[in-house]
Amino acid sequence: MSKSAPSDQSRINLLDSKDVISNKIKRCKTDSFPGLEFDNPERPECSNLLSIYQLVTGKTKQEVSEECRNMNWGTFKDLLTDALADHLRPIQVRYAEIVSDEAYLNGVLAEGAEKATAIADATLSNAYQAMGFLRR
């Protein structure tokens, strides 16, 4: 998973559905070694996916190591998909609430425009004064 790669397949987006997450996780590069483990330099993808799982579940590295030690990739990828979907669900629910409230969004935009205008006016006033122009 890479946040800087141009392909949408290279990352899990905050608003990805569980099906999209599953598709992306299933396509992750993995190896054919048995079991899963952290910190093996020959298995960077394994460490990466285990680290993602650790972060979204809040488990310790030791807990994840013990839980996943004897798993195969198919089982683990399903587990990771569920963990990611569960972790992102509150964000997605809140996002849906916000975008459905048009009055709230318009208020936020108006407030932001007001603040930006105040800052821009002060900057423009300083520039006019520095160049010796009179404001109209």
Automatic annotation (TrEMBL):
Compartments reported by the entry: Mitochondrion
Keyword vocabulary terms for this entry: Aminoacyl-tRNA synthetase, ATP-binding, Ligase, Nucleotide-binding, Protein biosynthesis
Claim: Chloroplast is one of the keywords in the record: no
E.C. code: 6.1.1.2
UniProt-listed InterPro entries: aa-tRNA-synth_Ic (IPR002305), Rossmann-like_a/b/a_fold (IPR014729), Trp-tRNA_synthetase (IPR050203)
GO molecular-function terms, A-Z: ATP binding; tryptophan-tRNA ligase activity
Record-linked PANTHER family: TRYPTOPHAN--TRNA LIGASE, MITOCHONDRIAL
Superkingdom of this protein's organism: Eukaryota
Main location: mitochondrion
Family assignment from sequence similarity: Belongs to the class-I aminoacyl-tRNA synthetase family.
Name under which the protein is recorded: tryptophan--tRNA ligase
Record-level GO BP terms: tryptophanyl-tRNA aminoacylation
Keyword Endoplasmic reticulum: no
One GO cellular component term: chloroplast
